[in-house]
Amino acid sequence: MMNLDKVDMKIIELLRNNSRESIQKVAEQVNLSRSAVDKRIQTLIQENVITGFTISTCFDQRLSPSDDIHSYLLIKSGSVDCKQIFKHLKSAGYDFQFESIYGEFDCLIRVNSTRLPLLYEIKKFIIDIGGIESIHILPVLDIKHE
To answer: Which of 10, 24, 60, 123 has a CA that sits 20 to 30 A from residue 137's CA?
Structure first.
């Protein structure tokens, strides 16, 4: 996987929030020329960092905005130390909480999203470390308030 700098991460964040945003508007927000941003996006696509552009639907927002929307990833780290997984995720700028746990799994990651494309992106990012035994994705479908 290619090394991503802060500008690449900002471009990804902007496109994740609105995949139909114009290249010109993205360029203005990262203080680069339109052609420079276009070239970066094409490189991100060629390197399989960006694997597609998606739309959101009403079905993606099943919980109200005031609810705590999140998912969990359970990881059997195999030959990889949990600290290494944490550092790898932190370097990518994902919004998460990380815990080392005892039992069948070694790491518990809480991701502040239920968007499956993002969760699979994070899963692939972790697998790319190598040596990971398994990862289970657990999106929270509903939150009960009493």
So the answer is: 10
- The model's pTM: 0.53
Q: Are 123 and 134 in contact (CB under 8 A)?
A: no
How do the domains of the chain map onto residue ranges? Answer: 6-46, 61-139
For the domain covering 61-139, report its CATH number.
Answer: 3.30.70.920
CA distance 132 to 109: 14
How distant, in Å, are the alpha carbons of 23, 59, 64, 88, 124 from that of 140? 34, 14, 13, 24, 20
Closest CA to 75 of 46, 50, 47, 107: 107
Confidence of residue 61 (pLDDT cuts 50, 70, 90): very low
The per-residue pLDDT for 62 is 45
Task: Name which CATH class applies to 6-46.
Answer: mainly alpha
Query: Residue ranges of the alpha helices (H) in 6-93?
Result: 6-17, 23-30, 34-46, 82-92
Tell me if 143 sits within 8 A of 67, measured CB to CB: yes
